[in-house]
Specification:
Blueprint: E1 3-5, E2 30-32, H1 36-50, E3 55-59, H2 71-74, E4 81-85, E5 91-96, E6 105-108, E7 111-112, E8 144-148, E9 163-167, E10 178-189, E11 194-207, E12 212-231, E13 235-237, E14 267-269, E15 272-273, H3 278-286, E16 301-303, E17 307-326, E18 332-354, E19 370-376, E20 382-388, E21 390-415, E22 420-448, E23 451-454, E24 462-464, E25 489-491, E26 497-515, E27 518-535, E28 537-538, E29 558-562, H4 564-567, E30 575-579, H5 581-587, E31 595-596, E32 603-621, E33 629-651, E34 664-688, E35 691-702, E36 713-716, E37 721-724, E38 732-743, E39 750-772, E40 793-817, E41 828-848, E42 851-858, E43 866-875, E44 879-888, E45 891-894, E46 904-906, E47 909-919, E48 924-931, E49 937-942, E50 948-954, E51 958-966
Parallel strand pairs: 6-9, 37-40
Antiparallel strand pairs: 1-2, 3-8, 4-5, 6-7, 8-9, 10-11, 10-51, 11-12, 12-17, 12-50, 13-16, 14-15, 17-18, 18-21, 19-20, 20-23, 21-22, 22-25, 22-26, 23-24, 26-27, 27-32, 28-31, 29-30, 32-33, 33-34, 34-35, 35-38, 36-37, 38-39, 39-40, 40-41, 41-42, 41-43, 43-44, 44-47, 45-46, 46-49, 47-48, 48-51, ...
Length: about 950
């Protein structure tokens, strides 16, 4: 392929993807052969240079060949962007300059879109808002992405972090009249030990002397993932659930005598003798937190549900695009762009756990557990312990969801004169997250002895269960006992449910160059986002645990989870028994389960936003008037937002009426509106050739997650947590300032540094309070079949607008091809970036009666103070290879955490990836890729001082082998 490099003025349109960076003005025009990764870097750099705003881009190496296997993973190379990974270690969404996924907007072919997937609870479960999950889409259907970090008035509002543009290829942008490219890959993961298929096809054809074109793309991928590790769910102080069972003869007996539970001076519960060691028991009592100096055991922290985990996923990802483009003359461009993606996941999680530490006396939990030996560190974190009377659970969770996205948008551009241009766009899209099933099943072994936890100086412990967990006869599945003992069971976990977001956008823009170097841009836009969440509950009769049918044993409905010991180690059992969900469904005739809606507390929630905006902006380029380059824009955008929220709140039925679960729905709705004026300005000064100084200032806003705005509430009686939403949340506003220096010292090369500052006026924080269920105003019918009393404390969260804070940071970026070195070194190149961010935000730690009584200052959630990325590559006419290292510093996931713990965080990570390709000839290319070469593990922790492990898993290395054919 041959491309041409020529000088470009600052306001010239950026060159196509195959172009190289502009040469210095005095350099003669020359022919250069540049292809592949080096060409994509040069093209992206050229786009960055010619833009007035701060924009970083990644473009395809070739048509149908995006540089990375995941869109979110591609963006790790962009300065200031940190990747957030989900299940299986796959890149899910991004943080930009310390601001999490909810603060950034994503546009697909110029239209704002949403994309939602599910995940395990530890990674936030299902996305129900604006945060964009990039793993919905295959990369092959896009040709470029751009990250806009500073705003301008002609770009719609909604972002504090960045506006990310994903662009699918168009037919008339291709150099050849006909293009056909196909890629087939096999993907192997060392944990799943499976080879999975991945394939893509793109066809483009021009007609009528290049005035009309059609381009279609299709991509398919099937993955089987496996993840193994350890989880504690939470860390609780020993007093939270009522302490442990006291030794025989201890001065203060715990629990007190209870004939119904078999508790007396010698027994913790029926058939469960008191075996606590007095010294070990006293060790727990003596540990007390500074904020609770009079509460025994408040400073002794133990895992809530210590457990090994095995997670296996089957994924299927399908995507495609279709573009029809018509250019009857040089002044007119009309295109219809359509895009579709479908991502289906079936995830099977299995755990083997000790659950007594998560239960109170009502469920015969921690107060019925004896402590024979125990040791803590100086911060109160458990080092090791030996317990009797522990309930052991084998739990399984099957989660099946489908995420679909479809969009069509019509684009029009016409130059009425050399100085006046009109562009218009109308588009519709729909994003659906369909949670088809989320079924939890479990079997329990009651009052097992010799249950052990031993960290032995490691971040995760060795667990001993005191019972043969591979023997079905060790466990129970039956209705619970009258004394509160649970003997296995199941839960629908709120499924089936569905989130649907419909988007509509219509806009028109005018561009008038009223004199040389000066343009007036103005226009208007209307867009609507309609979010609906549908939630169905099962009839009460179908949620009761039933005894196994006559002649059926646990061995008939169980399977074995194997191999975790080899993949994870750390004392994991070689095998444990678990319910087989298909056999369980057949045994209990699950297919006949009846579902109901409002009458059972279900129903739709709806949040509809209508945004009307208009802008006016002036751009200027004074290069012809001054001895140096000066260009920029200044403008203002007016935004009017209408918001309608509605939902069903479960309430007790009127006197004398009944329903299947004694619940009916009370409909609630809220209407509100607000207005915003958002000025912005960008300035670029080029005092010397190839040296750019950038400045930007603006007022910006983003809006709360859609799911938080629905006026609904609910509780989980098993975990004793609840939530109350808030439809009156205010938008999140900020004043921003950016400054940067960029030196394009060679074609395709850049050294730059940027400073950014954001004064965020308010945030949305979930404030948590400990509230008895009886004070929530919800019916006791919600507690049915949970063995949870109305007097039990529930951890209830409510989103509120909290005080904001400031965020500031620096980005350093380098891109250097070694073509100046000569010889083989000229085929090498490197790029790297480093970002440092400091923030100071106020959070509410304790709320009483809805008012915050204790606050703390800390970093913004999701913000890593340090991030860095580096890539070294080699590329010649046939062979290309590169390796990328990405580092992300620790970051906070939640403030506050559970009582006694100030934060929930994510430890730092380093991921190393590599890829290589070899062109056999002009038409055939072989591809090899590898991700997570160092077998990095992700660890979540709780409390900034103790940093006790919440979750740590291994995902293993992944290798890809493929071939690309181009005609």
């Amino acid at each position: 392929m041959m491309v041409f490099a020529a000088p470009a003025h600052a306001q010239d349109a950026p060159p196509p993807a195959e172009a190289v960076d502009a040469a210095p003005a005095e350099a003669p025009e020359q022919d250069i052969v540049v292809t592949g990764f080096r060409a994509s870097l040069a093209s992206a750099l050229n786009q960055k240079r010619t833009e007035t705003a701060a924009i970083d881009s990644i473009v395809a190496e070739d048509i149908g060949k995006f540089p990375d296997s995941n869109l979110a993973e591609s963006m790790q190379r962009v300065p200031g962007i940190a990747l957030q990974r989900g299940d299986g270690g796959e890149g899910r969404n991004i943080s930009v300059r310390g601001l999490g996924p909810g603060f950034s907007r994503v546009r697909i072919n110029g239209m704002e879109g949403t994309a939602q997937t599910g995940s395990s609870d530890i990674y936030g479960a299902g996305n129900n808002g604006r945060s964009f999950d990039f793993n919905v889409f295959p990369t092959e259907i896009f040709s470029a992405l751009a990250v806009r970090k500073t705003p301008s008035a002609d770009v719609e509002e909604g972002s504090l972090g960045a506006t990310v543009d994903l662009t699918a290829p168009k037919p008339l942008d291709q150099k050849e009249d006909f293009v056909l490219t196909a890629t087939a890959r096999g993907v192997y993961n060392e944990l799943s030990k499976k080879v999975d298929p991945r394939a893509s096809l793109l066809v483009s054809k021009k007609f009528g002397d290049g005035t009309f074109g059609i381009l279609g793309s299709f991509a398919y991928q099937k993955r089987r993932l496996r993840e193994v590790g350890y989880s504690s769910v939470d860390l609780l102080s020993a007093n939270t659930n009522g302490g442990f069972c006291s030794p025989v003869g201890f001065a203060s007996q715990n629990p007190g005598d209870n004939a119904g539970k078999g508790t007396d001076a010698l027994n913790c519960s029926t058939g469960n003798p008191r075996t606590s060691n007095a010294a070990a028991y006293q060790t727990i009592l003596d540990l007390r937190r500074d904020d609770l100096p009079n509460v025994e055991g408040s400073g002794a922290f133990l895992p809530r549900i210590p457990r090994y985990l095995n997670s296996e996923q089957n994924q299927e990802r399908i995507g495609g695009s279709l573009s029809l483009q018509f250019q009857p003359d040089d002044d007119t461009d009309i295109s219809l762009d359509m895009l579709y993606s479908r991502f289906e996941v079936t995830r099977r999680d299995n755990y083997i756990a000790g659950i007594s530490f998560a239960r109170s006396a009502s469920n015969n939990g921690q107060p019925m557990t004896s402590v024979r030996d125990i040791e803590f560190d100086e911060n109160g974190s458990l080092l090791s312990g030996l317990f009797d009377g522990v309930d052991v659970r084998s739990e399984g969770l099957i989660d099946n969801f489908v995420s679909t996205f479809k969009q069509a948008n019509l684009n029009f551009k016409h130059n009425f004169t050399d100085t006046f241009t009109v562009t218009a766009m109308f588009g519709l899209n729909r994003s659906i997250w369909d949670g088809k099933k989320r079924l939890q099943t479990f079997i329990d072994a009651i009052d097992t002895d010799n249950f052990s936890i031993d960290f032995n100086g490691n971040s995760t412990p060795v667990l001993g269960f005191g019972v043969d967990v591979n023997d079905p006869t060790s466990f129970n599945y039956a209705p619970g006992r009258a004394d509160g003992t649970v003997l296995g069971g199941f839960s629908f976990q709120g499924k089936p449910s569905k989130n649907t977001t419909d988007g509509l956008t219509g806009e028109v823009n005018f561009d008038w160059e009223f004199t040389d170097g000066f343009k007036l841009k103005f226009g208007g836009q209307y867009r609507e986002s309609d979010f609906r969440s549908t939630f169905l509950r099962a009839y009460n009769a179908d949620t009761v645990v039933r005894a196994l049918p006559a002649g059926t044993t646990l061995a008939d409905i169980t399977t074995n989870i194997t191999g975790v010991d080899k993949l994870w180690g750390n004392g994991a059992p070689s095998s444990w028994v678990a319910i087989d969900p298909e056999k369980w469904e057949e045994t209990f005739d699950f297919d006949s389960v009846r579902y109901c809606g409002v009458e059972c507390g279900g129903g739709d929630t709806n949040v509809r936003e209508s945004v009307t905006s208009a802008y006016v902006m002036s751009t200027f380029d004074l290069q012809d008037r001054l001895s140096f380059g000066v260009r920029g824009d200044i403008g203002v955008r007016y935004v009017h937002t209408e918001q309608f929220s509605s939902g069903i709140i479960p309430v007790a039925p009127p006197a004398g009426t009944t329903s299947p679960t004694n619940l009916v729905g009370q409909y609630a709705s809220v209407n509100r509106s607000y207005d915003n004026w958002l000025p912005s300005a960008n300035l670029v000064i080029e005092p010397l050739d190839n040296l750019l100084l950038r400045f930007s200032a603006a007022k910006v806003l983003s809006r709360p997650e859609l799911g938080l705005l629905a006026p609904t509430s609910g509780v989980n009686p098993v975990t004793r947590v609840g939530n109350v939403n808030n439809p009156m949340l205010e938008p999140i506003k900020a004043d921003t300032f950016d400054a940067a220096v960029e030196w394009y010292f060679r074609p395709g090369a850049l050294l730059s540094a940027a400073f950014f500052y954001k004064d965020v006026k308010t945030l949305v924080q979930s404030v948590t309070s400990q509230v008895p269920f009886s004070e929530l105003g919800l019916p006791n019918a919600l507690l049915e079949n949970s063995n949870t009393a109305p007097t039990e404390l529930f951890t209830v969260s409510r989103p509120v607008n909290s005080p904001g804070g400031t965020l500031k940071g620096i980005e350093i970026n380098a891109q250097v091809p070694f073509d100046f070195a000569g010889g083989i070194l000229s085929n090498f190149g490197a790029l790297g970036n480093f970002t440092y961010i400091k923030s100071d935000f106020e959070y509410c730690l304790v709320s009483t009666g809805g008012a915050c009584t204790v606050t703390v200052e800390n970093d913004l959630l999701g913000l890593s103070r340090y991030t860095a990325s580096g890539t070294l590559y080699y590329e010649d006419d046939r062979f290309s290879i590169r390796s990328t290292v990405n580092y992300r510093d620790k970051f906070l996931r939640g403030i506050p955490a559970s009582p006694g713990s100030d934060v929930q965080g994510n430890a730092s990570t380093i991921y190393v990836d590599a890829s290589a390709s070899y062109s056999i000839n002009d038409n055939i290319k072989l591809i090899v890729e590898a991700t997570n070469l160092t077998d990095e593990q992700n660890r979540l922790y709780i409390d900034s001082q103790r940093q006790d492990t919440l979750f740590e898993t291994r995902i293993g290395r992944t290798f890809t082998f493929g071939v690309n054919v181009r005609m």
